[in-house]
Description:
- The protein has helices spanning 4-7, 21-31, 51-55, 79-89, 94-97, 111-121, 140-145; strands at 35-39, 45-50, 66-69, 72-75, 99-100, 125-130, 133-139.
- By secondary structure, it is α+β, with helices and mostly antiparallel strands.
- It has one domain (4-63, 76-145): Roll (CBS-domain), CATH 3.10.580.10.
- It has a three-stranded antiparallel sheet. It has a two-stranded antiparallel ribbon with strand order 3-4.
- Strand 6 and strand 7 (133-139) form a beta hairpin.
- The longest helix has 11 residues, at 21-31.
- The radius of gyration is 18 Å and the shape is globular.
Amino acid sequence: xxxxxxxxxxxxxxxxxxxxxxxxxxxxxxxxxxxxxxxxxxxxxxxxxxxxxxxxxxxxxxxxxxxxxxxxxxxxxxxxxxxxxxxxxxxxxxxxxxxxxxxxxxxxxxxxxxxxxxxxxxxxxxxxxxxxxxxxxxxxxxxxxxxxx
Length: 149
């Protein structure tokens, strides 16, 4: 069974938390990427920024719902959730818009395990790490290529 090291893209284009969201969008569009790994100066994976994270910047802020009980207002969602939504919508940098601590795979992960993650969790791109260092990415296209002779 093939492993991630056999199909991954090792020459990774990544961004830092300080990269602007406009620059991240430009890179994704230019290279037809679904996501970009976010790394620090030492190459350690900090998060992942996906197209959906950038598209979320365009949505409106959901107003919190409340119900009244004995003349008191009780929120139906947590104030922290509203804060997180506001941070994402107003993000100017990748660090503010990214998903921190993404699901990762290692070079030794099997193709079967990658396919299961992609199908069950609807992931398009998975960072490949060796310890904490980013060594590649594996995407749906990489998996599809294994079907060709």
